[in-house]
Specification:
Keywords: Acyltransferase, Transferase. The protein is an alpha+beta fold and 197 residues long. The chain is built from 6 helices and 5 strands. Helix 1 (16-22) crosses helix 2. The structure holds coenzyme A (COA). Coenzyme A is lined by residues 87-90, 95-101, 122-124, 127, 129-130, 132-133, 136.
Length: 197
């Protein structure tokens, strides 16, 4: 029987530079030193937190891919437990050798070990290969995560308001309201002066 060349283990801090390369597109936009430091934190947190695991897949002894697993609830208001497999990712040169399957297998085993009934993962909306791969494993789309910079959304919300309700007016009005509320609070906390009725 052919020996599988894929093996799985937990990440160690020494893996951080390679994982920064692997996850280059999904880490926060900052310099490489800080990204590696971020990953050391993530790896240490996963190693010491119950309900987290950072799994590294090696192919013939070389790091080929990784996935971050964490136990959570389906959403903050849906308390069904779930294992999130965050950013399963395989270096392009190791793809189509069963590494991605091994990473999802690790997520399913983690859920099974803990008696958790669901697993979830994400796939970049534009990646046909990744979406087909997930669909074949029965991971169907359930929501689209929409992301924007906070000021971009604020800008659109402001532009949608009638002209009279835009900031400038609003911040002045808010300040007046805050000052009035403070005056009223001070009045209610001041003991009545002798002779007042
Ligand atoms: C999606 C991804 C994780 C899959 O990783 P992978 O290592 O290529 O996965 P596998 O090799 O297990 O399976 C991929 C395909 O190769 C096939 N395959 C597996 N072993 C194979 C082998 N030895 N020979 C030929 N084909 C093989 C699988 O059947 C599968 O086919 P399918 O996509 O038609 O279902 C990888 O493509 C990736 O990192 N993509 C970019 C990142 C991404 O979008 N990740 C998702 C969330 S961020």
């Amino acid at each position: 029987m052919a020996r599988s060349l894929v093996s799985l283990r937990c990440a160690t801090p020494a893996d951080a530079p390679t994982l920064a390369e692997l996850w280059a597109e999904v880490l926060r936009r900052t310099d490489q030193v800080e990204r590696i430091a971020d990953l050391v934190t993530v790896i240490e947190r996963a190693a010491t937190t119950d309900g987290q695991r950072l799994v590294v897949a090696e192919y013939d002894g070389e790091i080929a891919g990784a996935v971050h697993l964490h136990v959570a609830t389906m959403t903050p208001i849906n308390l069904e437990p779930i294992v999130f497999a965050v950013s399963p990712h395989v270096f392009p040169r190791f793809r189509r050798h069963g590494v991605g399957t091994a990473l999802i297998d690790a997520a399913v085993s983690y859920a099974e070990e803990r008696g958790i009934g669901h697993v979830a993962t994400g796939a970049a909306a534009g990646s046909r290969d990744a979406n087909r791969f997930m669909a074949r494993l029965s991971l169907g789309p359930q929501a689209v995560l929409r992301v924007a910079a906070t000021p971009a959304v604020r800008g659109r919300l402001t532009a949608q308001r009638p002209a009279g309700q835009r900031p400038g007016n609003r911040s002045g009005r808010q300040l007046t309201q805050v000052l009035a509320a403070r005056r009223s609070l001070r009045r209610s906390q001041t003991p009545p002066s002798v002779g007042s009725h």
